[in-house]
# Entry
Amino acid sequence: MANGPHPNIGEIMTIPFARPRVRDRIMEDPIYYQLYQLRNSALDFLYNRFAHDDVA
# Structure
């Protein structure tokens, strides 16, 4: 979700793990380590679109 007084969907990401997701199982899945781009994309989205430089 994008933030703000009228939030909307910011970007749709396809997560290749079935629900319910169990962290231990995901961490053991070799695909998890091949998808670092997915994590980086999510962090980039949050940082570049919603980070604020006005922190005192």
